[in-house]
Amino acid sequence: MKLNPFGVLAASALACATWAVAIEPLWLQKREVEVPFPGLPPALDGIRLGLLSDLHAGAWAPQEHYRRAVRILAKARVDVLLLAGDIAGHRAGQTWKQVLAPLAGLEPPLGRLAVLGGHDYRFDARAVAHHLGGLGFTVLRNQAVPLHRGGQTLWVVGLDDNSDLPDRHDFEEACRGLPPGAPALVLAHSPDAVTEARRRGLGLVLSGHTHGGQVRLPFWGSILRVTELPRRYDQGLSRHGDTHLFVSRGLASTHRLRFFCRPDVAVLTLRSAPKA
């Protein structure tokens, strides 16, 4: 029997499209990463951060998708839960509050913190921030807050949306209450924050925004670039001098489409490391 090459090509295209639309967008990946943190006090060594980004609640993802993410973080026993923006989709439907409800079931000992992204502002930033407050989150808008463990303190510098115009983030204001030389990480929607964080000597930036490119090609990587950083920094862990950057691929998206770029739930374990 002779194979029809056009038929094979059509079948392959259909299989890839089915995978990219029906399967991979809901196939969560748990990403456990150890992050060296120069100057981290010994009492904070081993602190576990749960990171979710780009939830896009109210777009297309069902509540069970968010429940699975919460179950992963609960099993990982994270010390703090961090949301890196785009909590609601800019065209969020009526269900956006309901699908976020599982987040209230996770009560990490050091609390729950969030920043906003461009989609939150295009939707209704005030409503998103208010709802997150009701779920037990502190929404950081250019401010720093301390996390205490074992008599030591790790600061979280939360930037307001740094991914959209007009610019809403203010690094100077966000760092105003930060004690000189204190160990600090930055929570920001866009990974572009790493440039200023490095200049200020801050140890870690946690972000999202890129969705990891959402569609990635073998030997090439993502086909889209939405930051000023080179393509190789659009997902996962990278080092920039003494500052590390971790970029989440996001939990959902505006459009239900992913290829070689699974949505992720990140569990980051901080490890003390000497300063250069």
Structural overview:
The chain is α/β, with parallel strands linked by helices and 276 residues long. The protein has one domain (5-273): 4-Layer Sandwich (Purple Acid Phosphatase, chain A, domain 2). 23% of the residues lie in helices and 26% in strands. It has seven helices and 14 strands. It has helices at residues 5-23, 63-76, 96-100, 118-123, 125-134, 171-174, 194-199, and strands at residues 29-38, 48-52, 80-84, 112-115, 138-139, 143-149, 152-158, 184-187, 204-207, 216-217, 221-222, 236-240, 243-247, 264-273. The strands form three sheets. Strands 1-14-2-3-4-5 form a six-stranded mixed β-sheet, with helices on one face. A six-stranded mixed β-sheet has the order 6-7-8-9-13-12. β12 and β13 (243-247) form a beta hairpin. The longest helix has 19 residues, at 5-23. The model has no long low-confidence stretch (mean pLDDT 92).
Features of the shown structure:
alpha/beta, 26% strand, 14 strands, six-stranded mixed sheet, 276 residues, Purple Acid Phosphatase, chain A, domain 2
Describe the secondary-structure layout:
Blueprint: H1 5-23, E1 29-38, E2 48-52, H2 63-76, E3 80-84, H3 96-100, E4 112-115, H4 118-123, H5 125-134, E5 138-139, E6 143-149, E7 152-158, H6 171-174, E8 184-187, H7 194-199, E9 204-207, E10 216-217, E11 221-222, E12 236-240, E13 243-247, E14 264-273
Parallel strand pairs: 1-14, 2-3, 3-4, 4-5, 7-8, 8-9, 9-13
Antiparallel strand pairs: 2-14, 6-7, 10-11, 12-13
